[in-house]
Amino acid sequence: MSAASGLPPALNIIALATFSAALSARALDPVLPHVAEEFSVSIATAASFAAAFAFTFAIIQPVLGAFADIFGKARLMIVALALLGFANILGAMATSIPLLYVSRILAGIGSGGVFPISLGLTSDLVGPEKRQIAIGRTLAGAMTGNLLGATVSGLIGDFLGWRGVLAFLGVIVVIASIVVAIGFRGAALTHPPRTSLSALRQGYRTIFTNRNAYICYSAVFIEGCCVLGLFPFIASFLFDLGQTSLSIAGIVIAGFAIGGLFYTMTVSRLLPVIGVNGMIIGGAALVGVQLMAVALGPEWRLQLLGLVFMGWGFYMIHGSLQVFASELSAEARATALSLHAFFFFMGQTVGPIAYGAGIEHAGKVPTLLTAGTVMIVLGFVCAKLLRQTRPTDAAVT
């Protein structure tokens, strides 16, 4: 991000942090069948590792958001990134299910200190008129990390197993935390006044007096449940079709990140043409249709294409919701975005459990058709109810 683009160069360092953290986000998804086999558990039980990661990520958000507003966002991101790297290494050495759960819990804490805080730092650096584009650029780092993480996970898993996946990514993330720390030292960061506890309480009041908060937070919970809750089952679906290569599973899952990258490349062109409501409705419709397509069990190449469109659509609606969340409070922006992440990852916690129950009791097709319908309806509801408003605690200029 050059000065010519009108966006601060510090976004490059933030994008590197989100890239590094995102490498681990979907690391276990392509190799879950092998995890289940080694520990002699069902795929549904193995999928609960994703729920443990997401639940920890979610419940730590109110604390991390407050810490970021009080002690500084950049410092917290560096510490969290280092923790994430060491958690992955610990997971690679796990000899039992409980130890692997502990490692995923620690990874959830580490990842939770990177993603939402990076959005708060980005919002501090860029005004509202360019914020969706800036957040899209920051998300490009995360999408690239998701893409490479899922792909590399499948490739390494075929040769070194799931332990090799975690060990490799752990070392990479630890190194990245050192690079990000060095980068932030030379970056031109803005330093908003540190938030006190009394101001933080006022920030919560400001956030929840805005009706957009209830709509945003409910919507991202549903997104997390319907979309990200599906991912732990994709490799299993492919296994059912006779496609047992972990590399193929990783490539299919990476399609979602490719779609996310496509969003980051098109958001600056699409937004002026179709507006925020068009982004929300169009994105939700793309997601819903692709969930329905996955229900039909097409061969892996078509599923890859479907995941690309799903990722594009998902970030069209999700990126719009992030902008609304960034405008809930000016003084407690990290808190507002951490709460946004809290509800999103609570959805990811419930999602694998809900999908598992739905597939077991109703079947794969009805479950995915229901999820697709919910997403389409969600887009229309959000477009109708959300209204862009200035934070009540924003400084008057």
Question: How are the SSEs ordered, and which strands pair?
Answer:
Layout: H1 10-22, H2 32-39, H3 43-59, H4 61-71, H5 73-92, H6 97-112, H7 115-125, H8 131-185, H9 197-208, H10 211-226, H11 234-240, H12 246-295, H13 300-326, H14 333-361, H15 364-385
Helix pairs in contact: 1-7, 1-8, 2-3, 3-6, 3-14, 4-5, 4-14, 5-6, 5-7, 5-8, 7-8, 7-14, 8-12, 8-13, 10-13, 10-14, 10-15, 12-13, 12-15, 14-15
Average per-residue pLDDT, rounded, comes to 82
The number of helical runs is 15
Based on secondary structure, the structural category is mainly alpha
- Compressed to H and E, one letter per element, the order equals HHHHHHHHHHHHHHH
Largest sheet: number of strands, sense, barrel closure? none
Q: Based on DSSP secondary structure assignment, what is the total number of beta strands?
A: 0
How far is it from the N-terminal to the C-terminal residue, by CA? Answer: 27 Å
Q: Using the CA coordinates, give the radius of gyration.
A: 20 Å
Morphology call:
globular
Give the low-confidence spans. Answer: none
| Percent of sequence in beta strands | under 5%
Can you give the helix content as a percent range? over 70%
Structure, described:
The longest helix is centred in the middle third of the chain and has 55 residues, at 131-185. This protein is an all-alpha fold and 397 residues long. It is globular. The model has no long low-confidence stretch (mean pLDDT 82). Helix 5 (73-92) runs antiparallel to helix 6 (97-112), helix 7 (115-125) crosses helix 8 (131-185) and helix 10 (211-226) packs antiparallel against helix 13. The chain has helices at 10-22, 32-39, 43-59, 61-71, 73-92, 97-112, 115-125, 131-185, 197-208, 211-226, 234-240, 246-295, 300-326, 333-361, 364-385. The protein is built from 15 helices and no strands.
